[in-house]
Amino acid sequence: MRATLGPPGPVPIWTGAADPKRKWGLTMARLRGIQEAKAELILFVDDDNELAPDYLNNLVQIAAKHSMLGVIGAGRIIPEFEESPDPRLLPYTPMLALREVAESYWSNDPKDGTLPWGAGMAVRREVADRYHAMILADPEKQRLDRAGNTLNSCGDDEFSWVACEMGFGKGIFTELSLVHLIGRSRVQKEYLLRLAEGHAFSRSLLAHLHGRKVHTPMPVPSLGRMLGKLVKLRMSEAFHEGSRWLNARSLNSIDLEFDGVKRAGIHRFLRTIHG
């Protein structure tokens, strides 16, 4: 049995001589790492990751073979749970940055949804330097990813957006495998609900930052609204509302809770943007 692992705590760092204020969070830690690193290929590894023995060798070979890729990530991020999750929560555990793809994939389209994640992510120096400059210049982008007690995310996704905007691509590879050690606190429903809210906020913010429209979540399905539309003979709207109501009725209580916090995350984003 491994030692107990809890949620990572905030660590204050300096962001450089030009900014004398202490700042917190994962994004700022990555900026400091980029600032201090000297190599042409920068690898990010979290303290709860165990790289496969051949990870570095495979990474160097992939980077040499695919010089058009600015960001490279693991295709296999396998969990080692300190405590097995409640089976009802298993559909939500991929939010813990877990994946196992059947084949390697790369492209120069950051909208395709297949992006390297922070655990085991490698970034070419020129992409990292561009990311460093862009993040420091944009306070909105500094809201991506963990800071203090928030569970925001998508800071790692921004590396892929930067790479593709520079003319590079991004890819994930089955040859790159690591174990993600997950403590018991991170498989509890309360934590996963907070994480889902943070994901919804961050994905909305990332979309907004790249010119994509974020729609206000539709109201919770209501049988009363459906009947009201029927009375007004608005048949297509009544059918749509009725279909949504039936779909909601088919969800179990946990699914409804996660649906609710995702809505809350999008609403938090909208409040942040519109004041």
Structure description:
The chain has 275 residues and is of the alpha+beta class. The chain has 2 domains: 26-191, Spore Coat Polysaccharide Biosynthesis Protein SpsA, Chain A (Alpha-Beta Complex), CATH 3.90.550; 223-274. It is 41% helix and 16% strand. It is built from 8 helices and 7 strands. Strands 1, 2, 3, 4, 5, 6 and 7 form a 7-stranded mixed sheet that branches. Helix 3 crosses helix 4 and helix 6 packs antiparallel against helix 7 (235-250). The longest helix has 22 residues, at 253-274. It starts with 25 loop residues before the first helix and ends with a helix. Mean pLDDT is 84; it is low at 1-21.
CATH fold descriptor of the largest domain: Spore Coat Polysaccharide Biosynthesis Protein SpsA, Chain A
Order of helices and strands: HEEHEEEEHHEHHHH
Q: Give the tally of β-strands.
A: 7
Largest sheet: 7 strands, mixed
Flag low-confidence runs. Answer: 1-21
Structural class of the secondary structure composition?
Answer: alpha+beta
Helix content: 40-55%
Number of domains: 2
> How large is the share of residues in beta strands?
15-25%
Gyration radius, to the nearest Å? 21 Å
